[in-house]
Amino acid sequence: MDRKWTAPGSALIVIDMQNDFCPGGALAVPLGDTIIPAVNRLIASADLVVLTQDWHPRGHGSFASSHAGRQPFETIAVPYGPQTLWPDHCVQGTLGAAFHPALDTTPAALVVRKGMRAAVDSYSAFFENDRRTPTGLDGWLRARGVERVLLCGLAYDFCVAYSALDAVRLGFATTVINNACAAIDLNGSRATQDGAMRAAGVDIQTVVF
Predict the structure, then answer these.
(1) Active-site residue identified among 54, 90, 114, 166
(2) In the annotation, is 90 catalytic?
(3) Res 42 pLDDT > 60
(4) Region 104-111 average pLDDT
(5) CA distance 132 to 31
(6) Nearest to residue 193, comparing CAs of 108, 61, 185?
(7) Which one, 20, 46, 83, 175, has least CB within 10 Å?
(8) Treating both helix axes as pointing N-terminal to C-terminal, what angle do 189-200 and 161-169 enclose, rounded to 10 degrees?
């Protein structure tokens, strides 16, 4: 296993390890909580740790409940493109939006909250889904001399994949640890995003812990 992320110039980005994305949550990723021991081991070995956190206002535009007659997992057209509609999840200040209690958040140097604008969803750690509005993470990492990022967390085929693709596009050497992720796998989305990441130059690895 390439452990270059443990050295200065590297960062671990842990994506959305929140209660609502774990079993029992509003938008549970199957087996989402089972990856926490692996994620914690990565955190313990990382030189620099960033956490992302979905942080939606009530009535967010990505919620099916915000669109009359629509159901979760349908797709609608919005000004920035297709939008999957989700159950209400990760609402600001709720228990569902909190990090899973088993996640070791102590070493985190930064928490990036995303999806805070009511009309725009945000999967990536780097950009909102309009593909124009940055979260500020790119500049924060560069100010610390980061050239390589490692990603893990939830969900592999949405927020992890979007973050990895943006990281490569921004010029970071990018690795995803696939056994420290779990996928929603909506209509084959896991295989689709796996192929997209590999084609873009994302290094996808399986770690033996």
Answers:
(1) 114
(2) no
(3) yes
(4) 97
(5) 33
(6) 185
(7) 83
(8) 20
SS3 annotation, the chain: CCCHHHCCCEEEEEECCEHHHCCCCCCCCCCHHHHHHHHHHHHHHCCCEEEEEECECCCCCCEHHHCCCCCCCCEEEECCEEEECECCCCECCCHHHCECCCCCCCCCCEEEEECCCCCCCCCCCCECCCCCCECCHHHHHHHCCCCEEEEEEECHHHHHHHHHHHHHHCCCEEEEEEEEEECCCCCCHHHHHHHHHHHHCCEEECCCC
pTM across the whole model: 0.94
Whether 114 sits among the annotated catalytic residues: the reply is yes
Q: Is the dihedral of CA 131, 156, 86, 89 positive or negative?
A: negative
Tell me what pLDDT residue 102 has.
98
Tens digits of residue pLDDT in 55-96: 999 999 999 999 999 999 999 999 999 999 999 999 999 999
- The answer to whether residue 181 is catalytic is no
Task: Spot the catalytic one: 159, 166, 181, 194.
Answer: 159
